[in-house]
Structure of Thiamine diphosphokinase:
Amino acid sequence: MNDYYILSGLKVSSFVEEQISLYKNARWIGVDRGAHLLIQQGIQPYLAIGDFDSVSLEEKQTVEKYSRKMIELPADKNYTDTEEAVLAVLRENRKANVYLLNESKSRLDHFISILWLPVKEEFRAYAEQIYFFDSHNKVSYYLPGDHRIKKEENKSVISFGNLLPIKELTLTGFEYPLTQEDISAPTMYTSNKFLNEEGSFSFDQGLLMVIQSADN
């Protein structure tokens, strides 16, 4: 089994409940309070990880009791709790597909650090195995090469952003195409659309973030 779902955040929305129900047999990892939220939804965390500063002592004891494994991190560290969770997954399974789920977005700095995660050297080789999703968006990452992408159900908008300088970005099969565009500074090409159910893109250098969104 190569699919791992990582839940962070402070609350469970109806969308999160739906995803937990859909993938209840997957390996779920709870980050900090996310572990307690999983237990409340009837899921035994495959791993609970974090400094657990967002749970009470009683909730922490519940997490320790019902999780298959628990890793308590120090408050002062070089990685965020979510980054530590991804590293733990990749140490266990280098072929893992990592799905990051967070609906709360209460901390903008935490949210941005999740989106930028594949920029760091230790994660970059696994960029195409890392995904972020919520009720309105699905984010995927791509390394240099030729790629095809299918339109996600219920997603009407696709946007492209370079997280590192990119060489010769070409977009084909979209309303707004590009041809061999070099982009140095991080730039978002927003509000593009598929012409059909599939498009393609290619680039020779850098790291590309692709976001499919529901425009509502």
